[in-house]
């Protein structure tokens, strides 16, 4: 139903996911991060457009210019078997294959990082892929797992894929798990860090509140995370009481005054107002 909106609003929605990617890259460069992890479903569906791929590639080139590596695993919406056009990605990008594998990275501080993940070879992956993840690499300063899948016991409208339990993750003794698939941000554990960052831009009125990415800091003393909003549009549902109001003009004035209190300079708000 979004395409029935006025053209200027539809254009904002269409551009919003691209703008959120720009914000992630801006943040990564500003923070001079050691690397970026993208945990699957980079594209909205298997009908990926040339524009979307080109836009992603251009943003990854910005990270390459800043000497920031990127690690990508494909999920159920952008699985590897898809026959759509695949643009060649820059040399700073590592894409995981369909079997669980570990890639290594040495940071500018000479820290050895092991990153383990896999990419979906097809839309439906029902197997417990977590069982193929190795235990923590003893020679690594930090070991990170990327997993696009569903945690057992948590209901989701996004379907069950590559299921796992929190206990299974913890038993691997990794320092951080970057989870994908669930659109809602969820912190499953603080020690070790196990986080669904959610999606970077709410795509409908069902996907409410702040959307963005996680900035992770791992040190020998502590493991910390900060959430950064990247959405240019935020969806909200609010209730407004009209108790005691009888004239239509007063109803209109009440709504206008309420909307003024919600305005901000950081993002557009799409508000579903229940009176």
What would you say this structure looks like, in words?
The protein is α/β, with parallel strands linked by helices and 275 residues long. It is built from four helices and 13 strands. The strands form four sheets. It has a six-stranded mixed β-sheet with strand order 4-5-6-7-9-8, with no helix packed on it. The chain has a three-stranded parallel β-sheet with strand order 1-2-3, covered by helices on one side. The longest helix has 25 residues, at 7-31. The protein is elongated and about 70 Å long.
Features:
alpha/beta, 4 helices, 13 strands, 26% strand, elongated
Helical content class: 10-25%
The count of strands amounts to: 13
Shape verdict: elongated
Question: Biggest β-sheet, characterized?
Answer: 6 strands, mixed
- What series of H and E elements makes up the topology? HEHEEEEEHEEEEEEHE
| Percent of residues in β-strands | 25-35%
| Alpha-beta classification | alpha/beta
Strand order of the largest sheet: 4-5-6-7-9-8
Low-pLDDT residue spans: none
| Terminal Cα span | 22 Å
- Counting H and I runs of at least 4 residues, what is the number of helices? 4
Topology, pairings included?
Blueprint (H helix, E strand, L loop, with lengths): L6 H25 L4 E4 L10 H16 L4 E4 L19 E3 L5 E6 L5 E6 L24 E7 L17 H6 L4 E5 L5 E5 L2 E4 L15 E7 L4 E7 L3 E7 L8 H15 L5 E7 L1
Parallel strand pairs: 1-2, 2-3, 5-6, 6-7, 7-9, 12-13
Antiparallel strand pairs: 4-5, 8-9, 10-11
């Amino acid at each position: 139903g979004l395409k029935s909106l006025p053209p200027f609003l539809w254009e904002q929605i269409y551009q919003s996911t691209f703008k959120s990617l720009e914000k992630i890259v801006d943040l990564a460069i500003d923070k001079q991060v050691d690397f970026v992890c993208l945990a699957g479903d980079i594209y909205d569906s298997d009908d990926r457009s040339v524009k979307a791929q080109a836009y992603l590639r251009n943003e990854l080139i910005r990270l390459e210019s800043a000497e920031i590596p990127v690690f990508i695993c494909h999920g159920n919406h952008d699985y590897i078997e898809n026959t759509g056009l695949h643009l060649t990605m820059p040399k700073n990008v590592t894409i995981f294959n369909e079997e669980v594998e570990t890639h290594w990275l040495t940071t500018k501080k000479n820290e050895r990082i092991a990153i383990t993940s896999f990419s979906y070879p097809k839309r439906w992956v029902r197997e417990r892929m977590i069982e193929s993840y190795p235990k923590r690499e003893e020679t690594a300063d930090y070991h990170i797992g990327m997993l696009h899948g569903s945690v057992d016991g948590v209901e989701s409208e996004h379907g069950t894929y590559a299921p796992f339990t929190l206990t299974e993750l913890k038993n691997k003794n990794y320092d951080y798990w970057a989870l994908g698939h669930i659109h809602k941000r969820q912190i499953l554990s603080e020690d070790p860090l196990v986080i669904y960052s959610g999606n970077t831009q709410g795509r409908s009125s069902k996907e409410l509140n702040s959307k963005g990415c996680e900035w992770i800091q791992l040190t020998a003393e502590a493991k910390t995370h900060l959430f950064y909003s990247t959405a240019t549009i935020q969806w909200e549902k609010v209730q407004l009481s009209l108790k005691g109001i009888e004239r239509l003009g007063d109803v209109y004035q009440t709504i206008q005054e309420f909307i003024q209190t919600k305005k901000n300079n950081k993002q557009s708000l799409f508000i579903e107002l229940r009176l």
